[in-house]
Amino acid sequence: MNKVVLTLVFFFTFQALSYAQRSMARPDKIGVGVGPSFLYGDNTGIHSDFKFRVLPTASIDYTQYLDTHFDIRATLGWQRIGSGDFYSENLIRNIAEAGYPHAFLGNMVFADVMPIYILNPDRRGFLPSLIKVYGGLGLGVFHSFRNDEFRTYQGDNFTTETITGNNTGVYFPIRIGAFIELPELNGEIGLEGVSLISPFANMEGNSKQQKLISPDVAVQLQVFYRIYLW
Q1: Of 5, 44, 106, 155, which is most buried by a Cβ count within 10 Å?
Q2: Is residue 19 part of a domain?
Q3: Number of structural domains in the chain
């Protein structure tokens, strides 16, 4: 009987120590994410009517542990961007007469760094959460390169010219997500919503204000898989 009791005490003590050691620090990790995205810009569609192009995005990131609630993350990503064909002839003419492209198709690359706050991390004395929730705000730089379409009107006739355009600027990324740990795969899987807010530079090469808020915003929804590095 005493041997059974001692065995049980040893087992539960070992489990408690193992959990305490694991909960003191999260592993650093590398992640890959893919998903749909759209660009909230001045010539990217009629957003109030949900008429805009949904295009792919992808990113890789590196996350480093700081303390119980905080990590630091660096992200490098790509997003396909395009205008679609949603405008009336009158609206296209107004854009053209202002000297801006009415349509475009291209790509945007971006890189940023942000602190991540874990809302419900593993901690000593607490049961671990199955789904962990986090959020963060950071600073980044984007570069977009596109084929922009310009129209020139002469009376009721017009000509269309395609010109290569590009823009570079600073943005503020906001990320909110959740993940589930997969110990058997030495990693985790998660879902993350992203907004890349550019208040100072155009992501789509158009400054004719036709949306409710001034900044351009790249909106993404990505599924992530992150691999632990310990």
Answers
A1: 44
A2: no
A3: 1
